[in-house]
Design a protein that fits this description.
- The protein is of the alpha/beta class.
- It has a domain of about 120 residues.
- The protein has 13 helices and seven strands.
- β1, α3 and β2 form a beta-alpha-beta unit.
- α1 runs antiparallel to α2, α2 packs across α3 and α4 packs across α8.
- The longest helix is centred in the N-terminal third of the chain and has 19 residues.
- The radius of gyration is 22 Å and the shape is globular.
- The protein starts with a helix and ends with a strand.
- The N terminus is likely disordered.
- GO terms for molecular function: DNA binding; N-methyltransferase activity; site-specific DNA-methyltransferase (cytosine-N4-specific) activity.
- InterPro entries: DNA_methylase_N4/N6 (IPR002941), MeTrfase_CN4_CS (IPR017985), RM_Methyltransferase (IPR001091), SAM-dependent_MTases_sf (IPR029063).
- It catalyses: a 2'-deoxycytidine in DNA + S-adenosyl-L-methionine = an N(4)-methyl-2'-deoxycytidine in DNA + S-adenosyl-L-homocysteine + H(+).
Length: about 375
């Protein structure tokens, strides 16, 4: 059997495995930490697991420079790989940091909440809602809002990322276990027309933060792997195009922002406001870049990653099929050209394209990406 045939057969087996393991929803089978808090456009945990299991080895150092919800770093850690994440979005940084540092026990984290609750009770009456924008006030009962503000301030000061992520995870929805007036779960839009106050008065009443926070933490820690606490893991909150990780990386696995197909700051604007981001539009210019800006950022990233990757290291990218009006090609083609032709030290060893089901789109009428592409590049020693 020829080497070419063997490689193509191996790739077909990998594709068959992907279609078997990654097409259906992972909710229900994934670790409960993946559901810590919503994040638009995040990679499925089953896809992250597939990429890590099939293209890396235990003990490898995995780096995700656009880690978003922390799906890849968490899966890497659970599978015995050292994990480094990075994201310029403060919400993403906190969420990933939380997943890489879960509590040792439920009793420990509840004791921590009880300690903070005493401080909240002392400070909550001093909160002046006149300093809070009206669009934020519209989501909450005033007393609930005061509690959220104080809880957030304390948890940020203490860098208690796990509890803070759980708080952000219950920030808005119409269900009783959440803190807001009726609104959507992922992207913050009020649903007061669908749930008028006169017909649904209970949805507009005061909601205790502490009680709901404890229940959220119980749900979030319900299903966890036996993590190896000796495995290295860390998350940065820096510009991916400028960050240089000093350790040698065995594999970069990431899903970069797709040339403003999604607005990560706008669609997380309520959570970001509590984290200190007053103007989400300014942040979106950076973390949800337009085409020209994105191509420059990804080019700088690829050059930096080349320096960070070990000999025979892998660059594994999960991409949408964005079409570049400037270069007249798709995003996967742009990146392939940069790595193979410009940098010139890589070969494409695996490629797979799959259709994005409409039920996985945040916006049902969205006319953006219809195909997701996996590209695996091997660095030539």
């Amino acid at each position: 059997m020829s080497e070419v045939f063997t490689e193509s057969l191996q790739n077909q087996l990998l594709i068959d495995q992907f279609n078997k393991e990654c097409v259906n929803s992972a909710v229900g089978s994934e670790w409960s930490l993946h559901q810590l808090s919503p994040y638009i456009g995040k990679i499925k945990s089953s896809i992250a697991k597939y990429l890590i299991e099939n293209f890396t080895q235990k003990g490898d150092l995995i780096f995700d420079p656009f880690c978003g919800a922390g799906t890849i770093p968490l899966e890497a850690w659970s599978l015995g790989r050292n994990a480094i994440g990075n994201d310029l979005n403060k919400y993403a940084f906190i969420l990933t940091s939380a997943k890489l540092s879960p509590p040792n026990s439920l009793n420990e984290i509840i004791s921590e909440i009880e300690k903070y609750d005493k401080e909240v009770s002392e400070r909550v009456k001093t909160v002046n809602l006149a300093n809070v924008p009206e669009w934020v006030q519209a989501f909450f009962h005033p007393e609930t809002l005061r509690e959220i503000i104080v809880w957030t301030e304390i948890l940020k000061t203490e860098e208690s990322w796990f509890i803070l992520s759980c708080l952000l995870g219950i920030l808005h929805h119409q269900r009783p276990g959440f803190l807001s007036h009726p609104s959507s779960h992922t992207v913050p839009y009020l649903r007061t027309n669908k749930f008028p106050k006169g017909e649904f008065p209970s949805l507009y009443e005061y909601r205790s933060v502490k009680d709901r926070l404890i229940k959220k933490i119980i749900r979030a820690t319900k299903k966890q792997p036996n993590f190896d606490l000796g495995i290295g893991r860390h998350c940065y909150n820096e510009d991916a195009s400028k960050l240089i990780v000093r350790e040698k990386i065995d594999a970069i696995i990431t899903s970069p922002p797709y040339m403003r197909q999604l607005n990560y700051a706008r669609d997380n604007r309520l959570r970001l406001w509590f984290l200190g981001v007053e103007n989400h539009k300014v942040l979106d210019e950076i973390i949800s870049p337009k085409e020209i800006d994105f191509i420059k950022i990804i080019t700088d990233c690829l050059k930096n990653w080349n320096e960070m990757l070990s000999s025979n290291g892998k660059c594994i990218l999960f991409l949408g099929d964005n079409y570049s009006k400037k270069y007249k090609v798709t995003l996967p083609e742009i990146i392939s050209n940069i790595l193979i032709n410009d940098i010139g030290k890589y070969e494409l060893t695996f490629k797979h394209e799959s259709l994005i089901p409409s039920n996985r789109r945040v916006r049902r009428d969205h006319s953006g990406n219809k195909i997701e592409t996996i590209l695996v590049f091997q660095k030539i020693a």
